[in-house]
TrEMBL record:
GO molecular function: ferrous iron binding; oxidoreductase activity, acting on single donors with incorporation of molecular oxygen, incorporation of two atoms of oxygen
Domain of life per record: Bacteria
InterPro entries: Xdiol_dOase_suB
Listed name of the protein: Extradiol ring-cleavage dioxygenase
Keyword Oxidoreductase set for record: yes
Alphabetical UniProt keywords: Dioxygenase, Oxidoreductase
Amino acid sequence: MTIELSILAAHVPSICHEDQVPDFQQNMVDAMKQVEKDIANIKPDAVVLVSCHWPSTFAHYVDCYPVHKGLLTAIEAPELIKDVPYHYPGDEELGLQLVKAGVDAGITVKEVQDKYFVWDYGTVVPLRYLVPNEDIPVINLSVTLAANLEETYQWGKVIAKVLHESNKRVIFISSGALSHHLVRGRHNMPTIAEHSLDKEFVNLLMNKDYQAAYQMLPQYANMAKVESGGRHLAMLLGIINQEWTPIYLADGQSSGSWNALIAFKRTNTSLTCEYF
């Protein structure tokens, strides 16, 4: 079938527990909870999620294990994210198809098959709002430090091809921030210079000038310290094309970073989403 919806999602640790969300981040939580209703209406067969907090060194990893169950304490912020349970089904068959397609394309892609593998908070936090019932199979992906933006972009295109040719309805989630020059104090905004680059990049996305956004990404990632070097954005730009319409839903700061929630809906689908 196809990818029904693509999402750029936030995962800031202070939104992990809804009762602890700061006022200036509440709009992101509210928007994700609304998108959850749209995802439920879609009834997807799988979610494919790339997380900036699963940094692999050399290979692109695909978690193909059929069950994802564990307790997460985030090593970066254990006082905020401690003993958080998760229990989602996986999709081994589709995961292995992604691995094979990546290898066939000459990309270094490897499977993960490990019942003790622990998810990161970039995976867990957005799923707590987007798939709170834990009833949709999830395949999570790493961002790969040895891979440049071009390789990650091409890997995104390979992923898109596999998902479009599968017999499943899929949601793609890119979990990560825009500018990410961190400072102490979660209320802090990016600098004016960094935020101006955020605005220009988002403006290109909202005008569907995805090729220009991709061309901007290397310098933007370097100058604004974009999370994961912009790899999650490169993969997202490999997934979407001119058939996708962006919807800007929410945004907010976190310790000097800027986080946006943007959904991308295919314009040639009959899907009607509540938020859109």
